[in-house]
From TrEMBL, chain B:
Transmembrane segments: none annotated. The keyword Cell membrane applies. Keywords: Cell membrane, Lipoprotein, Membrane, Palmitate, Signal. It comes from Jingyaoa shaoxingensis. InterPro entries: Bact_solute-bd_prot1, SBP. This is Carbohydrate ABC transporter substrate-binding protein. Residues 1-29 form the signal peptide.
Length: 301, 432
């Protein structure tokens, strides 16, 4: 009995700690300690070369009171998130519904739509930069040749640059589409058959069956997309450098510039912690709201 | 008790002797059989790495007792590497540096003053004195010149021929340049041909187009964007060329058009490093050449160019300063090394002996012949610009204000006023 308990209890615990131990060591060494140091550094003046000097909450005061670019970058990031996330999810949902129909060629379309999501980011963004080119870009070239419209200077016009980034982001909705498609295929056909017998219209079935059944998937996708959008960095870094006139200057870019271009690591760490707080707060709000709109099958079962 | 005292004295004596000898010990390190470890850091593209690899083998063969380790990375990652090395106290002995990213490191007292070594070696005359001045920080020489790149104007001969216009020459004026930019602009939309292309470089040129006083004074940490007639004139001239559509707007430094090689621009700003891509990409598509920047009649000066001077410096913490200097001198004064720089096409070699040689004049990197001397002539009006630290922050504000001006979102006085105020705030924050 004792021997058996040992096998099931202590040994299993030992195995558990051996397996998770390496991860815990890695987490402590490469995440927890750097995070702790970054928190300390956020209260210092530190150029990344000499020793940090404690300066209290000066970085935070500067951020909220003096730094125009902090507010500008926060506004740009929130704008990008609010517009691009629903747009991305909406289009992905639409595509997933279309691809969920058993029609010929759906597998090919699925592959085509998913393809941009697996391509390397920087190369894709460079490609888009040239597509958006004012004088030589393919988009403006087609606009001119087909409609005789002189297109905007997409990435160099403050009124268009953010829109250009959002449009580009739509083309990466393939991965979201795939997750939603998996969710759609998981909805039991019996529900639709029962609804049909009751005379429900396709729209009503979508609202009353598809959406509730899909809500856990949409919740997951929403959380991941919001976090990704709030951290947006590579696209503006490669395509616009935050310009023109700081119109695509995002929080991530501000954070990067402060550390690696302006050599103000202390301030950059403070920015990182504020970004962390923003992401955390928005995630909590979404989680709290999920009680109102996310439906789990187990709730009924 | 007596024994302890004696022992202490002995240890102190030995330590003192060691300390006294350490300064001189390194002097002979290269000539003794003692095994010495030396480290070196640089940034480079793959072709340059291969070449440096071969050249460093030659140096190593002359120093059999030295183990030379070198580390390298791509240019954009290099400043971050420098920060990591210095903050961790593990800076390599010999470090490649560029003047435009030097300021934040120079002010931290991390590099050794090479003046005494240079005086001892008698190599001071190997380079143009102005190049040595660029690496002078508060009287300390922190690097020896290796190579540089600067700006010229490239022009498309075919477009000039079609318009029946003469090619520009070294003595051309600003008025002639503006006239050409206007005359050679034609068409609309994607079919438009522009008279001039500045790309993102425009916001660098504007900082000191007519020389002193520049937009900011880095030495005294002062903004000079307002009450600066030269800066305002430069801002207006280059801004209006964009505003009026004679140059394409690529001010954010993101080249979306492919630049001069596309053949859509009659003239374009070209850096030394651009020539290799011109040779490769333009091929037989059109004929081209380069010319010095024009001369301003109003300020009686040629437009100033950024001198992106690169060199090799020595970490202050190196344990083998003499040996490190030996390597630095090899990289900067050896004829074959300088020839390799020229052949790579990454910059203009700094060594005067090589610049005066026939080899330099006739080496076009295997491509078409061009007016290579233009780069050397432009070095006479070279000025060092800043790309790092607080100056990068102010440069970003300049780009934004310049963009606001050329798109009509603001007028010139407001733009300069904003720049002045924001620049002052950044400098003030750095001082506090």
């Amino acid at each position: 009995m004792k021997k058996n308990r040992k096998r099931n209890g202590i040994y299993r615990e030992k195995d558990f700690y051996i397996f998770v131990g390496l991860w815990i060591i890695g987490f402590i060494a490469f995440t927890l300690i750097p995070m702790g140091y970054s928190l300390y550094a956020s209260f210092t003046k530190w150029d990344g070369v000499s020793a940090p000097q404690f300066n209290g909450v000066q970085n935070y005061i500067r951020m909220f009171v003096q730094d125009e670019r902090f507010w500008g970058s926060l506004k740009n990031t929130l704008y990008y998130t609010v517009v691009s996330v629903p747009l991305n999810i909406g289009i992905a949902l639409l595509l997933a519904i279309l691809l969920n129909k058993r029609l010929p060629g759906t597998n090919i379309f699925r592959g085509i739509i998913y393809a941009p999501s697996v391509l390397a980011g920087v190369a894709v963004y460079m490609g888009w930069t040239y597509l958006y080119g004012n004088d030589t870009g393919m988009i403006n070239h087609l606009l001119y040749k087909i409609f005789h419209i002189i297109g905007p200077n997409w990435l160099q016009d403050a009124n268009w640059a953010m829109t250009a980034l959002i449009i580009m982001n739509v083309f990466t909705c393939g991965s979201v589409m795939l997750i939603i498609l998996a969710g759609l295929q998981d909805v039991p056909a019996i529900y639709y058959e029962a609804a049909k017998l009751d005379g429900a219209s396709p729209f009503k079935m979508f609202i009353k069956i598809t959406m509730p059944m899909l809500s856990p998937v949409l919740f997951y996708v929403l959380i991941m997309q919001v976090i990704g959008a709030l951290q947006i960095f590579t696209q503006p870094y490669i395509m616009t450098q935050g310009g023109p006139m700081f119109s695509t200057y995002t929080f991530g870019l501000h954070l990067y510039n402060q550390a690696f271009r302006y050599y103000d690591f202390g301030y950059s760490c403070a920015l990182a912690w504020v970004l962390f707080a923003v992401i955390m707060s928005i995630s909590i709000v979404i989680f709290k709201s999920s009680k109102l709109w996310v439906f789990y099958r187990e709730d009924v079962d | 008790m007596k024994t302890t005292k004696k022992l202490k004295r002995m240890v102190a004596g030995v330590l003192a002797s060691l300390m006294a000898m350490s300064g001189t010990a390194n002097v002979w390190a290269a000539d003794t059989e003692e095994n010495v470890h030396l480290s070196m850091a640089f940034w480079a593209e793959q072709s340059e790495i291969d070449r440096l690899d071969q050249l460093l083998e030659i140096w190593k063969a002359d120093h059999p007792n030295v183990t030379l380790d070198y580390t390298y990375c791509a240019g954009p990652d290099y400043p971050t590497k420098l920060q990591v090395w210095f903050s961790s106290g593990k800076a390599p002995d010999v470090i490649r540096m560029s003047r435009d990213i030097f300021s934040p490191f120079a002010s931290e007292d991390l590099f050794a003053d090479l003046t005494p070594y240079l005086e001892a070696s008698g190599s001071a005359g190997c380079w143009d004195e102005s190049l040595l001045d660029i690496f002078d920080f508060d009287g300390e020489l922190l690097s020896l010149p290796y190579m540089y790149s600067n700006y010229v104007i490239a022009y498309n001969k075919d477009i000039f021929d079609e318009a029946n216009l003469e090619y520009p020459t070294a003595d051309w004026t600003e008025t002639e340049f503006v006239e050409l930019a206007k005359t050679l602009t034609s068409g609309e939309g994607p079919e438009k041909t522009y008279g001039m292309w500045f790309g993102g470089w425009v916001c660098e040129l504007v900082r000191a187009l007519y020389g002193e006083p520049k937009m900011y004074d880095t030495e005294n940490m002062v903004m000079q964007a307002t009450n600066n007639e030269k800066f305002k004139a430069a801002f207006q001239l280059l801004g209006d060329l964009h505003k009026d559509g004679y140059c394409s707007n690529e001010v954010t430094k993101t080249t979306t058009t492919g630049g001069f090689v596309t053949g859509k621009y009659a003239m374009a700003i070209a850096m030394t490093g651009d020539i290799a891509s011109y040779q490769k990409q333009i091929g037989d598509n059109f004929k081209w050449d380069i010319v010095e920047l024009p001369i301003s009649e109003t300020y009686d000066t040629r437009w100033n160019t950024n001198m992106r001077l690169q060199g090799f410096g020595m970490s202050k913490t190196t344990e083998h300063p003499e040996l490190a200097y030996d390597l630095i001198e090899y990289m900067t004064t050896n004829y074959e090394v300088q020839k390799a720089v020229d052949e790579d096409g990454v910059g203009i070699p700094a060594l005067t002996e090589y610049l005066e040689s026939e080899e330099f004049k006739t080496n076009y990197g295997g491509g078409v012949a061009y007016n290579k001397e233009a780069f050397v002539n432009m070095a006479k009006v070279g000025t060092s610009w800043e790309y790092a630290g607080i100056w990068a922050d102010i440069n970003d504000t300049l780009t934004s204000e310049f963009n606001a001006y050329i798109t009509g979102a603001t007028d010139i006085d407001t733009a300069l006023d904003n720049l002045q105020k924001k620049g002052e705030a950044v400098i003030e924050a750095a001082k506090s």
